Amino acid sequence: MSSSELANALLQACQKRGIMLATAESCTGGMIIAALTDIAGSSAVVERGFITYSNEAKIDMLGVSATTLETYGAVSRETAIEMAKGALDRSRAGLTLAVTGIAGPGGGSTEKPVGLVWFCVGLGGQAVTVERKIFADKGRDFIRRETVRHALELGLRALGQSQAEGAAP
Prior knowledge:
alpha/beta
């Protein structure tokens, strides 16, 4: 499925369950919320998008702990979890998608290579899915597009909806 089809399926799944959705994005810079709001009628489900590219934005907008950022870094499991929980706490959303990663072309290291992305889905007031993925270093655009796609897939999975089910009318 394309990102557009995944976004549509996720919106339908949220609407069916009567829950709002919010995103907390770092490396994608708003691409997930854009994919969702590109779809007509998304305002029935989309509550808001937090674009927290800098550490300061993560702290100010989502309440990510400065200690977490200093100890584990912006691209970490711990930061992704705090981003998802912060989006839940600071919105009316019942489902949040949080991503933080290294899209490149620079900024990677042996421990945290270009293409590393941490995902966290918040649902029902808690982090329900945390996943680490390393995308092939095929350029910044590729990594960001694949991150959007995977975040939407994780949102569908968290709602117990397969991609095929979500696409059904």
